[in-house]
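Researcher: We're reviewing a set of sequences before deciding which ones to prioritize for further study. For each one, I'd like a predicted 3D structure that I can look through quickly. This is Vitamin B12-dependent ribonucleotide reductase. If possible, include the structure in token form so it fits the rest of the review sheet.
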Amino acid sequence: MTETVSGTAARGGKRPRKGLKMKRIFTTPGVHPYDEVAWERRDVVMTNWRDGSVNFEQRGVEFPASWSVNAANIVTTKYFRGAVGTPQREWSLKQLVDRVVGVYTRAGVEEGYFATDEDAEIFDHELKHALVNQVFSFNSPVWFNVGTASPQQVSACFILAVDDQMESILDWYKEEGVIFKGGSGSGVNLSRIRSSKELLSSGGTASGPVSFMRGADASAGTIKSGGATRRAAKMVVLDVDHPDIEEFIETKAREEDKIRALRDAGYDMDLGGKDIVSVQYQNANNSVRVSDEFMRAVEKGERFGLRARLSGEVIEKVDARGLFRKMATAAWECADPGVQYDDTINDWHTCPETGRITASNPCSEYVHLDNSSCNLASINLLKFLQDDGSFDIQNFVKITELIITAMDVSICFADFPTEKIGETTRAYRQLGIGYANLGALLMATGHAYDSDGGRAVAAAITSLMTGASYRRSAELAAVVGPYDGYARNADAHKRVMRKHSAANDELRTLDAVDGAIHAEATRQWTECLKLGERNGYRNAQASLLAPTGTIGLMMDCDTTGIEPDLALVKFKKLVGGGSMQIVNQTIPRALDKLGYPGEQIEAIVEFIAEHGHVVDAPGLRPEHYEVFDCAMGERAIAPMGHVRMMAATQPFLSGAISKTVNLPESATVEDIEQVYLEGWKLGLKALAVYRDNCKVGQPLSASGKKAEEKADKAEKAEGPAEPQVKVVEISRPTRRRMPNQRPSTTTRFTVAGAKGYMTASCYPDDGLGEVFLKMSKQGSTLAGVMDAFSVAISIGLQYGVPLETYVSKFVNMRFDPAGMTDDPDIRMASSVVDYIFRRLALDHLPYEERAALGVFSAAERAAQQRGEDPAAVHSEQVIAELATSAPIEQPQQRAEAAPETAAGAASQAVARQEPGRGGSLESHQGRTADAPLCMTCGTKMRPAGSCYVCEGCGSTSGCS
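Model: Here's the predicted structure for Vitamin B12-dependent ribonucleotide reductase, in token form for your review sheet.
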């Protein structure tokens, strides 16, 4: 335990307070933590595939040798401050960590957190050791802002408040804009705004919250465009008893219908596409705040009252099950809305005397007071798995203490986007400690993710983390005082602490691993309650589970947040460029834990590398298959497996959990209803779902069927009509045959290791007229299908079907083989057909038509990232300038670079797939086919909680 003793005066001469007596965890007295790490120099060169166009270049950067190339690239491009090529640019991880930790340590000393200067030094050294060894990470705003000339913004999550006044609504627009500009996200509940079924004081009818959502969505979209690579992240919540709830529920589903129609018409409707801005409500996640009263009405099939916003009177009654079905149907169609369980959230609220919890941040893990914020940090759980398979409990407790102390210190010096948010955060000091790599930890210890044993381990770790966090918070309260709002909320706060402790007492362990963790968690909660009774608590909130997108990659985590492994195989970037497909390194560790000998482990790993799953792996017992189940693939974890894992950990978290429950494309509306209902029964605070391909897989034929059904009904009602004879003149197209001699281009291509050839022939007066495709051996089924496809396309072109029509229909078509290509302009293809028509568009369509279809060359994408007009790249002068641009100035210590990183040509190469029998990672990842391409580097992104993260450069689709 951390001791407290009388120490330095705090806050500029105020009365002396006790200071923390820090103890070392990983460091050695008299030895700087950097001196215990092997460092090496690397080159970070981010290019547009193989065309030589450099997006980013910084040579001679310094990182620990243990860090992957991917982690070093992400930190260099995302977190190093200073203009590239100037002496002010950071070039070493040491500089980055010194910049951040230096501010934390100085603030801790100034605010009286430490008993002596020696304790401050221990704090400084332990933080630096933990960060450079990837034991934990602060959230991204800390790395962006702390220690720079920018405002010291440390929070990634914000909750705003909107009242039923125009001034408040306009303030909401402004406050969201300030938050988005800083790269963070916010959430808001619009339920105080009068519905469109209520009257204004002037006698007119109110617009309703959905109408005001349009303005906020347009504002967010504009700021997204200004931010170039990161879309605005926001959450919009509406209470289930709001009279406009049905309109809110169906809002995004209706817009999704528009997206499909416009995409089929040839418009660029992908994430970041230029035509997506014509569709509304695309910059927010929507959630319905449901009450226990409503959920009980759903169970019983009763009617439920919708209430006026000002008077609270029931103005309309609806069928609860019908409304619940509409929620599930909309989520089935477009993944929105999610649900937030209002009574559960507020039953675990530590500060109800200050106000109810009405909203959340964009990913739903931060739930607390309006006009507040939360800074996050996540622990890399795999760092605490010891060689003997046990969990390093004592060091886990110590690192939790250290992180909570650092996070609380950050509130002392932090800046906030609005004064209201600053006041609330300083008064309640909400923190969000969490973890990553749970899925990898469970697999490495031989636990299936969807099993009682896996859930017991996860619950015990979560309970230990939160118990240690609040125990440390009580110790901090003795040193620097409880949070300002504690006095008025003391009884409620202590009641919630007892609820956490009671949940811990009810936890049932199954083996030695979770048994030992649970025993320590029980000790932590006992001490927490005792200290809290005496000292109060420093923080109104301590823990939650965030998606850990970019920082998960920074820590080289195999899995993010509470998520299971995404797939059993992945790509690993190599020093100097290139990549190789590898089996996740957790798998050999798991097989060893399960008792398999070395030769058998090698055979199983080789099988997984080839097939991407474990079914029928040589020598692997079927009862062990479940240990290797993933979110996607041959043995995907069932949707309720995700819900049960969330339920196992939720009682031990102050906040909620950022996680999306994945459902297969074949899932029904009833399946989603069941997930939402079980989430309520199991005590979750929030829940979101995603049905595979729901964003693009719901065809317009559904509406066509409805139209046909209506027509049939009308015909039956009116009786058979008399036959009518009409003479219709049909204008038939004529075929324009190709001449015997015509210019042609042959392209050799590779998609996920599958090779092919395409010959495209043109009319002499320009215009594509013929396409021939060759894949596989002559006489094979594939060769025959491709020949037939080529003939069909060629005849269509000769009969006048525009090439852009084919492109609009065939790009984004998904089937295997899919993945990396060897084309510098088309880095990823969702199928061979997708590649072919992207290539034809680039070769034969003018820029304006391609831009409308969302097909750009590498040079054009690079120009977009620089904020230039992509059409300008067609100037030979611009292209020449790009080709001859000077390299970035290197640090003076460049000569120390390791030989393997100094190879000139190799260092210029970019990540590529090494063909081989392993096949494509994409072919094993199911839902990732729906993931967007990264707008920074073009790599396919992967799910991370409710968002997506790019493993190539660390960019996210909205979450820090």
